Amino acid sequence: MGKIAFLFAGQGSQKPGMGKSLFEYSRMAADVMEMADAVRPGTSAQCWEGSQEELNRTVNTQPCLFCADLMAALALREQGVKPDAVAGFSLGEIPALAFAGALSHEDAFRFVARRGEAMDACAASNPGAMFAVVKLDAARIEEICASLSDCWPVNYNSAAQTVVACAKEQAGALSAAVKAAGGRAMPLAVSGAFHSPFMSEAARTLEAEFAGLAFREPAIPVYANRTAKAYEGLSQLFEQVNHPVLWQKTIENMAETGIDTFIEVGPGKTLSALVVRILSDAKVYRVEDAGTLQSTLEALRNA
Hints:
By secondary structure, this protein is α/β, with parallel strands linked by helices. It contains 14 helices and nine strands.
């Protein structure tokens, strides 16, 4: 086995009960939730007892999923699994930075809670939609977006999938243009046009309020959504909000450094599926609860 990377799950993977078994299993994981409840009372109850509808609200999704992701990563580290690098998809980039020591856990949590509020406000003032587009390459999708107003490629997920964000009123035109080109546009259950210029006000708000955030040199490389390279400074944390996520390039750049084992931390397996599409020979595992923690540990021991 070569090098290991942890991949922190992004918005859309949230689900009721996330993190509860890890809270009961791991002291380091429990510390995260206890911190979150002290800063934002009721976070644990929301994670464990909240409905899917409640967790799908951006203002709740982001702080709750931050906790679930970070708890999974710390539970792994508590068992002696140490990654050589980390990356997080969109929201997941913030717990990745906290795990790597670039931000304190409390500072990162306060930031992500405010990030959810700011992005939710942008979504309300600039109604948007997002679509996962398949059967077309990224260059063709870029051409389609350029032919329409208020339409942008925002998540370069793999050679087989690019996510597009657009103004709500452009959703029909985008779907029709993709179909005419031989592709398929699948609507995503999100509340706004994330990672697009529609989020620019959120980026400005966060930069104004958190410009003094204590940012330290990460203990291990944190690959940035903005550049697909190792983080270089605090500004990338704000720029990430209204710029595309370069996920395919991130995974490819990690592989070039010798990383061949990827562990998705947090609910779901979206990132695991993307890694398999990008790197067919990669070893992929995931940890979202005590059960998957144990199975992943066993698989790593046998690798």
